[in-house]
Specification:
CATH topology of the largest domain: Tumour Suppressor Smad4
CATH architecture of the largest domain: Sandwich
Structural class: alpha+beta
Radius of gyration: 19 Å
Largest sheet: 11 strands, antiparallel
CATH class of the largest domain: Mainly Beta
Order of helices and strands: EHEHEHEHHEEEHHHEEEEEHEEEEE
Length: about 300
Amino acid sequence: MKRALLVMNPHAGQRRANRFLPEIIGIFNAAGYEVTAYMTACQGDASRIVRERGEFADQIVCIGGDGTLNECVSGILQAGLRCPIGYIPAGTTNDFAASLKLPTGIVQAAQVAANGEPVPCDAGRFANRFFSYVASFGAFSRTSYTTSQNVKNVLGHVAYVLEGIQELSQIRKIHLRFELDDGVVEDDFIFGAICNSTSVGGILTLDPKQVDMGDGLFELLLVRSPRDLAELAEGIRALKTQSYNCAMLTFRPTSRLQIYADPDMPWTLDGEREQGHAAIAVENLHHAIRIIRGKDAL
C-alpha cells in the first residue's frame, strides 16, 4: 500500500477544508494510500513535519494556502526529498493552484491529488529561503494579500491598487539594481516580482503564453516609478492588457539574479513576509519539485 503524508493547515481560508477531511482521507484510501495526517499548529510546522516524516511517504499532500505550500516545498527541498506533492488549495489566494489549473473545489482537488500524474516544476531560492512561485516587493505586495476577494473579483488585476492612488506622493519609490543572466537593470521602482506563476496575489495575471513553470526561468516583472500621472496611467493600461513592451515596465526571463536593495525593505515570498537584505542571490531550481496535476491538464 502506498503512503501519503497529509499536512493540513486547519486555519487556512476561513477553515473551509476542515469539514472535508474525512472525505479527503477516504479518497486517498480508495486510491490505495495509507494516510497519516498532521495538523499544523504554528508557523514552520509544515516544514518541520515534512523534514521529519517525508522520507517515509510516497506522496506529500498539502492542504492549505500558498504559505502552507511554501512550507511543504521548503521541507522537501531542505530534506532532499523527491516525493511528489499533491496540493489541495484551501487558502484565500491560491496563486500557485490557479497557475497549475488545479480545481478550486476541495473534493475535486483531492481527487486530482490522489489520482493525477506528477509534473516537474521549478522552485526558487531567495537568499537562504525557498519559494514556490513568487518573490515580490513594493506598492502592492502586501496589499494584494490583505484585500478581500470580493474587491479583487470586482476590479481585477493589480490596476485596482494603482487606480486607488490619488497622488504620486503616495507611491514609495525604491531604488534597486538587478544583475541578470544577460544584463543589468537599475532604476527606481514601485513594484517588482520574480515569478514562476501566471497569478500573483490573486490580482496580477501574467500572460500564460509567456510563463512556463518548468523551463528553468523566472519571469522578472518590474514597474518603474512614474514621473507623472500620464506615465501612471500608461502603466495601468499595460498591466491590464498584459502589454509588456511599455516604458513603465520591465519584463525579462532569467534563471538567476543578484539583487542590491535597501536592507530595510521587506519582501514577500509566496504571500509571506521576508525581511530585507542589502544583497540577495536568487536562483531558479530547475525541476526541483513535482506537483500532481489532473491528467486532462497535462
